[in-house]
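Tokens help. Consider this.
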Amino acid sequence: MKGARFHLAALMVIGGLATMALPLGLAERTDFSPEGIQFFESKIRPLLVNNCHECHGNEKHKGNLLLNSRKTILRGGDSGAAIVPGDPAKSLLIEAVKYTNSDLEMPPKKKLGKQAVADLEQWIRLGAPWPSETALVTAKREHGFSITDEDRDYWAFRPVKHPRLAKRNGNQAPI
């Protein structure tokens, strides 16, 4: 009886470790087609930057979800993995952007257009191609920002001016 329990426990541990290692193997995939990478760069990266990174980018991680690398997208957040490569129907990201779950509607302020959702589904069907794990999202935001004259006049951006020192004769400090 003890031997059977041991074997069952060992099998459960090995099965659990294998299940945990599966997403790690998926994250390391780098054999994506140039067309898949081009699709990601032209459609998906700008979509993520403009619609998702305000809450799930380098600075904020709402729901512990970070959308700046393939590895973090596969790892997911509090609700689980954001995507299942090859299967958009099982991907929480698609559920969120389609607003099919009232507890999971992203982006929260404005629903994505049908073409954007279709692009995300196609990207997941392709296996979620990503150029490399070192290439974090760097696409520019559409709104951008501008630097005003007032910003340029901020003390930290002014040229350094060396103060004039008063001339002194000899050492004034007694020893």
Remarks:
- Helices lie at 2-27, 34-51, 53-56, 70-75, 92-97, 114-125, 149-152.
- Residues 32-142 form one domain.
- Confidence is low (pLDDT under 50) at residues 21-27, 134-139.
